[in-house]
Specification:
Blueprint lengths: L2 H9 L6 H24 L6 H29 L3 H7 L3 H30 L6 H6 L1 H19 L7 H13 L11 H9 L2 H9 L6 H27 L1
Helix pairs in contact: 1-5, 2-3, 2-5, 3-5, 3-7, 3-8, 3-10, 5-7, 7-8, 7-11, 10-11
Length: 236
C-alpha cells in the first residue's frame, strides 16, 4: 500500500483495530437499521424513502467524519503549516483521504442497503441505489473537504463537521419533504443535493431533470470548495 494511504489510515482513530472498525462502521449502523426496520414492520406507512435516506446519510456522515478526522490529525501534529507552504499535489494529500473515506462509506451503504431493502421487499431499488454511489461519493468528498477545510487552524476543528453531520437527516428531508419546510429551512435544505438524490433513487427514470439538478448542485459545491480553499490559503 502506498505510504500516503498508510499514513492516512493511521491518522483516523476509528481505524486503530479491526474490532473498532467493525463496531463503528458495521455493528452500530446495523443496530440503528434493525431498530428502524422494527418500527417499519409495525406500521402501515411506506418507510422506503426514510430507509434510503438513512442509508445514504449514514454513508455520507461516515465519509465526512473520516476526512475531517484525518485533517485534524495533521493539524495536531503540526503538518498543516507545511501543507500550505509546500502545497502538495491533490493526489498526494487529499486523494488518499477521499479514497479511504469513500471505500468505507460505500461498503457501509452496500451492506445496509442490501439488508434494509431486502427486508422491506424493495429489492427493485437496489440497482438504482448502487448507480447512485458515484454521486454519493462526490457529495461526501465535497462536503467532507468543505467541512475539513473550514476547520483548519480553528480552536475547534470539528465545528463545521459536527454541524454538517448532525443536520444531514433534517436537510435531506427524510421524514417531511423539503417542499413542506418553512422557507428559512427550505433554503438551507435546497443548498444540498441529498434530497434531490433521494428523489432520483426512488424515481423510475435514469436521465431526468432530477439528475441534472443534482449535477448542477455538485458543480456549485465544487466551485464553493475551490473558493474556500483559496480563502484558507490566504490565512496561512
Amino acid at each position: 500500500m502506498n505510504s500516503t494511504y498508510r499514513i492516512t489510515l493511521r491518522s483516523v482513530g476509528t481505524f486503530d483495530s479491526i474490532r473498532i472498525i467493525l463496531v463503528n462502521y458495521l455493528f452500530l449502523p446495523l443496530v440503528s437499521l434493525l431498530m428502524f426496520l422494527l418500527i417499519a414492520f409495525n406500521s402501515n406507512q411506506d418507510y422506503t424513502r426514510s430507509l434510503i435516506g438513512t442509508i445514504v446519510t449514514t454513508g455520507i456522515t461516515t465519509s465526512i467524519g473520516i476526512i475531517s478526522a484525518s485533517v485534524v490529525y495533521d493539524q495536531n501534529i503540526g503538518l498543516l503549516e507545511d501543507f500550505f507552504s509546500i502545497r502538495p499535489a491533490f493526489h498526494k494529500y487529499w486523494l488518499p483521504k477521499f479514497v479511504i473515506a469513500n471505500i468505507t462509506a460505500t461498503i457501509e451503504i452496500v451492506v445496509l442497503g442490501g439488508i434494509g431493502l431486502v427486508s422491506l421487499g424493495e429489492t427493485n431499488l437496489l440497482p438504482k441505489l448502487f448507480l447512485a454511489l458515484p454521486l454519493i461519493i462526490l457529495i461526501s468528498s465535497l462536503l467532507g473537504y468543505f467541512s475539513a477545510n473550514w476547520g483548519m487552524n480553528h480552536e475547534n476543528p470539528y465545528w463545521l463537521t459536527n454541524i454538517m453531520t448532525a443536520s444531514l437527516v433534517l436537510l435531506a428531508g427524510l421524514i417531511i419533504p423539503v417542499r413542506a419546510y418553512p422557507l428559512w429551512l427550505k433554503v438551507f435544505a435546497e443548498l444540498l443535493p441529498i434530497s434531490n438524490l433521494l428523489d432520483w433513487i426512488l424515481s423510475k427514470n435514469f436521465l431526468d431533470q432530477g439528475l441534472l439538478i443534482i449535477i448542477a448542485k455538485l458543480f456549485t459545491w465544487y466551485v464553493i470548495c475551490l473558493t474556500s480553499s483559496r480563502i484558507k490559503q490566504k490565512e496561512f
